[in-house]
Amino acid sequence: MQFSYSRVDLFKRCPYHFKLRYIDRLTELPNYEANSPLIVGHALHTGIEKGKKAMLKEFYNAFPLVTNDVINEAIKLEHNLEKAKEWLSDFNNSFSFTGGYVFIHEYEINKPEFIGFVDLIVKRKGTNDIAIIDFKYSNAIEKYKESPQLQIYKYYLEQEGYNVIAMGYLFLPKTSIRQKKDEDLIQFRKRLNVTMRKLKTTCLKIEPQEMEIIYFLNECKEIKEAIQEKTFNWIKNPNDECFACNPRFAPEYLEQLRDDKGELIMTLPKNIRREKKIDERPDFWIYGDSYVGKSTFVDKFDDLLFLNTDGNTDNTTSPVINIKDEVVKEGRITKRTFAWEQFLNVVSELETDKDSGFKAIAIDLFEDLREHCRIYVFDKNGWEHESDGGYGKGWTMVKTEFNNAIKRLKNLGYQIIYISKEVKSETTLKGGAVRTNFIPNIDDKTANFTTGTVDLTIRAFMNSDGVRLLQLSKQRNVFGGGRFNFLNDTCELSKDEFIQELINAQKASHAKITAKIKPIKEEIKEDKSVKQTVKEETKGTEEVPPGETITDKEEVIEEPKRKTRKRKSSTKEAVEEAKAEEKEETLDEKPKRTRRSRRKKTE
After folding, report:
1. Contact of 409 with 402, CB cutoff 8 Å
2. Domain ranges of the chain
3. How far is CA 537 from CA 128, 175, 540, in A?
4. Which DSSP letter does residue 3 get?
5. Average per-residue pLDDT in the chain?
6. Which residue range or ranges hold the PD-(D/E)XK endonuclease-like domain (predicted)?
7. CATH fit for domain 267-493, picks 1.10.3210, 3.40.720, 1.20.1510, 3.40.50
């Protein structure tokens, strides 16, 4: 195993979650909350390296839809980017560097036994002297004084011939203020801007601690032994320091079913049925206005089973199972089988099915299925609304019941297709203009969960000329996105056209990767030769490290584009900071309370 600071840190705090992520390799569903630490943090690093335009593009494109909350976070990002650039422009004020220096962003340390990314290396020209800086979007400053992260980077950078003379964290301020009930969105954003202007960056210098690397290497050895020892006890949260064990921030894994208390019910077999090849049958979620032809489009896929909730099957020819309540009267007793129970029975049958020949399952309509689940949970608990279950419990029980069933369906190995109707929402832009959005007819949290379980989410619509189309490319006011980089923005609402666009996108992506292989290999050779000369550098000769150029004064270096790295958020600091932020936050608005009439039970 190739170790990193975050991997070892996670093992120390929670061996259980280390096993899930790095040994079992479960599929973690993306977090599309506007303040997602991963999305916000990575966008901020992009901004520091490439500027505001690149930062906002990456940030907005990370979400299925740009909402008011996303724009609020973008405002915070812009302020923090200005603060970071201001600090970097006066770097000498924090670290005394005489003469000129250059910035090297996102420097990769890649050893057989270790991998790490240094946010920023500041190199003094004409020497091997460097300072290493790590950016933190956090208010938990004190907790990082004991962090060994920079000590580890220092150890491996010095193996490459650099002389680390300074280390530090740059903390970019974080605020969790929310919109008050008596202020509109424009007023809130004005208050947010005022708040962000008042906040300051903090630079925390770190002194060398030689023992930290010894501890780190011993911990790496301990992990190796734990993996080899089949009887090792992968205990959960031994010191109450695991971020992932906090129910509020626990990651959601596609292969895990949990109860409403967050306890593990079972781990499903990992779905590995698809090879790395051209995928003509991706899992997708299609939504659009009524009568645009969504179901007819899906019906063109071969070996398809429809699970229909609205009875509208006149225009489809594939086999169908109606998901609806079934009522049977036996004498004076009326027995009801809820639609949700029917769906669960279908999933159970499909789990053992080997002879039907189905290759795809389509749920039409997906939002109806979610409502059937809701009604089932209400009846089971004697509720009329989620709030009858106590603070947060009702919503959690409905979400858990629904998500677990969808995970079971996803792991059957079929192509999964969800069909939904379209509704409109509005987003207020920073300038006050209002933009209309097109979104699936389902609540935001369920939408974010659902789009994380499919390969792409697409909108079907009719243009002004009456032509039915599929929206393929990402638009900020259209809920959607996925893992394919389509060459065209739209295509006709036709299975053949859609499949051809899928093939073209994957072939283009493959060609782009193939074209990069040779330059990457040459870059690696050049990188190794440069690192070797660092050790032999003489006083009168200045060698240029990878990605660096020489100018008379300070300049920002753009490294060759690398794969996006994921920043882990499994630290005690994040947990404690989140708990502190809870005191600042106001309660989230609950969904509008809609009661259902009670059915009279017949004796």
Report:
1. no
2. 31-208+516-564+572-584, 267-493
3. 8, 46, 8
4. B
5. 84
6. 2-233
7. 3.40.50
